[in-house]
Amino acid sequence: MATERWTNEEGKALTLRPLVPADFDIAREALRRLSPRSRYLRFFIRAWKPNDERLRKTVDPDPKLAHALIVTAEDAGREIAVGAGQFFVVAPGDRAEFALLLADEWQGSGIGTRMLRALVDEARRRGLRELFGEILAGNAAMLALARKVGFSVTPHPGDRGIRVASLALAPGSDPGSES
Ligand SMILES: CC(C)(COP(=O)(O)OP(=O)(O)OC[C@H]1O[C@@H](n2cnc3c(N)ncnc32)[C@H](O)[C@@H]1OP(=O)(O)O)[C@@H](O)C(=O)NCCC(=O)NCCS
């Protein structure tokens, strides 16, 4: 995947790039600072706590089974993790499930949109047929973001509290091109 660099409205330099094992410490720090609300919206568990073992696997994904990206910013001369996105291939060559997470203070400024579009591009590049995500029914921001990028949203067949956002990745189709 291509690295993206841009400057936000406050003049902060941001970078979107693949997540690598060396990101463990900055990712861990960001997860520890995450609000209970964001933890729940991402992991669906109210008492979710960061787990080093799982994080080690997340920052070192098996390229055949997963893809992960990170967005970083410069803060007082050092790099900090602002957000991360990933997908897991649930049916090789066919379907992958995505998830996104942004640090609380960085939500609502378009970073999630960039991350989801980058995941769509990578899933399409890999020839996958569908990218989907499970989203809590009350997660207005994630539902709006998914629709904006071209996903259709339907009820989860087995859980009324969850919606399923799905995007067909026909080669050459580009539903995420609207702004
Ligand atoms: C959900 C999340 C990834 C969205 O990323 P973001 O960078 O905050 O979203 P964006 O700024 O790109 O917003 C995209 C669209 O969502 C909508 N949106 C954003 N915040 C919203 C809010 N609080 N309520 C309703 N809609 C909202 C807007 O339509 C926006 O598009 P616009 O700015 O062009 O109008 C981020 O808020 C987050 O990490 N939340 C906590 C964890 C989570 O919910 N993860 C998703 C699990 S799959």
TrEMBL record:
Enzyme class: transferase
PROSITE patterns xrefs: GNAT
Domain spans labelled N-acetyltransferase: 14-170
EC number: 2.3.1.-
Keywords in alphabetical order: Acyltransferase, Transferase
Biological source species: Usitatibacter rugosus
Ribonucleoprotein in keyword set: no
Keyword Transferase: yes
Superkingdom to which the source organism belongs: Bacteria
An example molecular function term from Gene Ontology annotations: acyltransferase activity, transferring groups other than amino-acyl groups
Name this protein carries in UniProt: Peptidyl-lysine N-acetyltransferase PatZ
InterPro entries for this protein: Acyl_CoA_acyltransferase, GNAT_dom
